[in-house]
Design brief:
Elements: H1 5-8, H2 19-32, H3 45-52, H4 56-69, E1 72-75, E2 79-82, H5 92-112, H6 117-129
Antiparallel strand pairs: 1-2
Length: 132
């Protein structure tokens, strides 16, 4: 049974990243982090669109891009599944690449706040040690 879209995805309307890109990035992170394993079913386009109040074409575009990249595969009568051997997302370098945009945004904000690098690194290390 596919997990509920609200359990997997969240959309931040104020981000500059388009909604389909937010969905793509979230699926990539879930696969790279092991929260979605090969063979796991994703919620249907319709369910995701309804739960997140987005256009079904937006969800379809995200799923299609992930299918093209080899992260997801479409199976007739079953829907979208995590590919048996998803390309990318499993090696440490790939996971670090997924984190890079977030760190770039944080670095930009730190520069805007005129924080020195040592303060930022200390804060980041403290956050990493906090339990989730």
């Amino acid at each position: 049974m596919a997990p509920q879209p609200s359990q997997l995805f969240s959309i931040v309307p104020g981000l500059t990243a388009p909604i389909y890109r937010q969905l793509v990035d979230q699926v990539r992170r879930l696969v790279a982090g092991g929260q979605l394993a090969p063979g796991d079913a994703l919620p249907s386009v319709r369910d995701v669109a309804l739960q997140l109040a987005v256009n079904p074409m937006t969800v379809s575009k995200a799923y299609g891009l992930l299918e093209h990249e080899g992260v997801l595969e479409r199976r007739r009568g079953v829907g979208m599944l995590v590919a048996d051997h998803p390309r990318g997302g499993s090696a440490t370098g790939d996971r670090a690449a997924l984190l890079r945009p977030t760190l770039e945004r944080a670095a930009r904000e730190a520069r805007e706040l005129e924080l020195d690098p040592d303060t930022v690194l200390s804060l980041f290390q403290a956050i990493l040690k906090e339990s989730p």
